[in-house]
Design a protein that fits this description.
The chain is globular, with a radius of gyration of 14 Å. A five-stranded parallel beta sheet has the order 2-1-3-4-5, sandwiched between helices. It starts with 8 loop residues before the first strand and ends in a 5-residue tail after the last helix. It has a single domain (about 10-120), classed as Response regulator (Rossmann fold, 3-Layer(aba) Sandwich). It has helices at about 15-30, 40-45, 65-75, 90-100, 110-120; strands at about 10-15, 35, 50-60, 80-85, 105. The protein is α/β, with parallel strands linked by helices and about 130 residues long. Helix 3 links the parallel strand 3 (about 50-60) and strand 4 (about 80-85). The relative contact order is 0.17. Helices cover about 35% and strands about 20% of the residues. It is built from five helices and five strands, in the order E-H-E-H-E-H-E-H-E-H.
């Protein structure tokens, strides 16, 4: 993104530091800027955050879980796209309950190229 004045910030909320750092490395390699949070509470408490074009949230987190964080964010008048991630399959009830809120679902492990394409689309970035 050399020479571009637009930054594409993605928040990654995941308590697994290895996963979070590898996801950040993938996103950074494709020109996204990332900010990592190890729990929902640290995300909520963060100050001076950039305007995120997308927020990726793990399902299982210490304290407040990922679905609750996503539901809270989705209830706000204006929020960036939300991606809820899980290492297990999502059940139909989860999908039916959260899909109307605009929450997208991503199963771990994910296809790196697929994720980058999805984020480019969600963030309104030209590929």
């Amino acid at each position: 993104m050399l020479g571009s004045s637009r930054q594409y910030w993605v928040a990654v909320v995941d308590d697994d530091p290895g996963f979070a750092m590898s996801t950040a490395a993938l996103l950074n390699s494709d020109g996204f800027d990332t900010r990592l949070f190890d729990c929902a509470e640290s995300f909520i408490a963060a100050r001076d955050t950039p305007p995120f074009c997308c927020i990726m949230v793990d399902w299982v987190l210490p304290g407040m879980n990922g679905p609750t964080l996503c539901e809270r964010l989705a209830a706000q008048e204006s929020h960036p796209p939300l991606i809820l991630m899980s290492g297990t399959m999502f059940n139909e009830h989860d999908l039916e309950q959260r899909s109307p809120l605009g929450i997208e679902f991503l199963r771990k492990p994910f296809d790196p190229e697929g994720l980058l394409a999805q984020l480019s689309s969600l963030c309104g970035r030209s590929a």
